[in-house]
Amino acid sequence: MKVDVQSLGTFNRLAHEGAEQATQSLCQMTGLDAVVDVTKITLVDRADVGDQLGDGEYVGVQFAFDGELAGDTVLVFDRAGSETIVESLVPGGSDDEAMARSSVEEIGNIMMSGFIDGWADFLETTIEHSPPEYVAGDGSAMLPDPPADAERSQVFVFKSEIEWVGESVSFYIYMFPEYDPLADVMARTADTEDDAIPIDKLEVFNEMTKDGTQQAAANVEMMTGIETDAEVTRLSFAPIEDVPKQVGTDTYVGTVVEFTGVPSGFLLVLFDEASAVHIAEAMMPVEMDADELTDQHKAAIEELGNIMTSGFVDGWANVLQTSVEHTPPRLVHDMGRAVVDPLAAQVGQHQEHAFIIDSEMRTDDIAFGAEIHALPNETELRQALDELLVERADETEADVETIF
Amino acid sequence: MKVYDGTTAESEPATQPERVKVGIAESKVADGDALLTTSGLGSCLGVAVYDRSAAVAGLVHVMLPSIDEMEGDNDAKFADSGIRALVADMERRGADRERMEAKIAGGSDMLDFSENGSGIGVRNVETGRRTLAEFDIPIVGEDVGGDHGRSLRLETTSGDLIVKSANRDPITL
After folding, report:
1. A342 contacts in B (CB within 8 Å)?
2. In whole angstroms, how large is the CA radius of gyration of chain A?
3. Chain B residues bordering chain A (beta-carbon distance below 8 Å)
4. Dihedral through CA B59, CA B60, CA B65, CA B71, nearest 10?
5. Burial of A404 (0-12, 13-18, 19+ CB in 10 A)
């Protein structure tokens, strides 16, 4: 299967419009106000699907759908969000478990029918869906297993995030299309074969990004003694104006570099403020015990960002068998979205959509989280993938000794 | 959307103004008592325009200077087409360009890696100014440039534009 950027763009817009339609139904029924914040198509390891849901408690409604596209789709509310909805339909109803459940089912049914119908309209076909099923669970356990496919470890996920106006809670629509029908439909909507990317190369690119992330994590451990437990890597595709939304609105600390070569682009290493203080202190010879970020903390973050960037970029260069150069890191300490915005704008001068590579690392011991985001030039990424020999993916094991 | 005239709004202080979120490359217009907000402006530019006597206000969050420089069908993504569309939209809602005033914020040159020529932030601000001048809309307040991000809140009744930054106290334009 090949995907071309055109059809990814079309599918992204379609998923977004479907989510908007579903959200409108919700707003009409409840009188609540919600807007679709971001829609993206992601290629991710089966095991990591839904990791962004964290450990929270969720409820929702799930459907299976079948026809020209097949798979599962699920609407996911966190507890607080579902209570808001139930209260708007049946005041006082959230105390009554059965009532709460039927309200969620009802709203879910209406929302998701709209979502599926949107797809069917576009494809000029009918898509059947199963009766809604109420689901509840913690974190990613809430989601259905992605379609079984012995040949593939990575799956496509279409995800929309919808935000209540004036509140900081969100809910989500996930769609897990089965591979073969999706491939057929994508091939049909593709305008041209010229700019198509074979999926297995995207998968390899994901793999090498994962190795790059592990390398970056190893470098963190070497400098700080902090061992990260979980690393997750995703390759996403979104309109350029949605790129800054990949990062939260909170204040972040980190580094940004521009890398050159094929592909060129930008790479960000970001820590939330609390993590930045923690990790910087782990690098310092003396106890600081400060709650605030000082210049010494920032200097440590700059050093760490530099080393994580090197580790990450080396993972790529090894696979691509090219050299990827990067500028010295620039330290940033600002609102997350405002940091990404100028980078998206620079890339956006040449393209309307972007591939975004996201990696996260977390540790359970202390509050620590780091994110790596790469924003490559799309045409050059395609060129790099064109030249990529798939069998080279196992060569990403960057040797620490060669880096320092 | 409800429309209040000034006197009604004052006699009902408990009324919560409607909050309207403006995303990147989006433009929103409100009449009556509303708060238009947008967040995470880096090199992006926020342009707030209001006509106090018509009680119509709008906010656009643009990303790039000019629609002429590239393909695109979203007016609100570009400073020139975004402002033109905003003014037209406001006039459809009863505002008059003769009475409009503008405030602009954003256009930071943080993380500008371009080695020659002006960065996107600077060009966004320049194009914004030029386009507002086409309509003879005066810029009565601005907080642009620098190397930090901004978030904005436009109070439609007063025309106050509150600019927040991560490392600085909020200012009111």
Report:
1. 42-43, 108-112, 119-121
2. 22
3. 19-21, 23-25, 39-44, 63-64, 69-72, 74, 77, 108-114, 119-121, 148-151, 165-167
4. -160
5. exposed
| Interface ipTM | 0.85
* pLDDT (mean) for A28-40: 79
Kindly report, residue by residue over A288-302, the tens digit of the pLDDT: 666 678 888 888 889
Q: Any chain B CB within 8 A of the CB of A388?
A: no
Nearest to B122 by CA among B43, B7, B20: B43
Query: Domain extents for chain B?
Result: 20-172
Give the closest residue to B103 by CA, choosing from B74, B71, B137: B137
Helices A79-89 and A97-123: crossing angle in degrees, nearest 10, is: 100
Q: How far apart are CA A270 and CA A215, in angstroms?
A: 16
Q: Which two tokens stand for residue A171?
A: 């809910």
Q: Quote the CA–CA distance of A58 and B50 in Å, as a whole number.
A: 42
Q: Residue A214: its pLDDT value, please?
A: 80
Please list, in sequence order, all residues whose beta carbon lies within 8 angstroms of the beta carbon of residue A294, skipping any fewer than 6 positions away.
Answer: A288
* Three-class DSSP category at A328: coil
For residues A42 and A351, give the distance between their C-alpha atoms in angstroms, rounded to a whole number: 19
Q: How many CA atoms lie within 13 A of A374 on its CB side?
A: 28
β pairing state of B18-21 and B34-41: parallel
A98-102, A228-232, B29-33, B110-114: range with highest mean pLDDT: B29-33
Contacts of A332 in chain B (CB under 8 A): 110-111
- Cβ–Cβ of A348/B64 closer than 8 Å? yes
- A352 to chain B, any CB pair closer than 8 A? The answer is yes
Please give the DSSP secondary-structure letter assigned to residue A141.
G
Cα A89 → chain centroid: 32
Window A:166-225, CB contacts with B under 8 Å: 166
* Beta-carbon contacts of residue A288 (< 8 Å; ≥ 6 apart): A281, A294, A296, A297
Q: Provide the whole-model pTM.
A: 0.83
Q: Where are the alpha helices (DSSP H) in B68-157?
A: 79-92, 120-134
Q: Say whether A4 sits in a helix, a strand or coil.
A: strand
For residue B63, the chain A residue with the least C-alpha distance is A345
| A contact residues 325-344, partner B, Cβ 8 Å cutoff | 327, 330, 332-344
Tens of pLDDT, residues B70-109: 777 789 999 999 999 999 999 999 999 999 999 999 999 8
CATH of domain B20-172: 3.30.1330.200
Contacts with A340 from chain B: Cβ below 8 Å: 40, 42
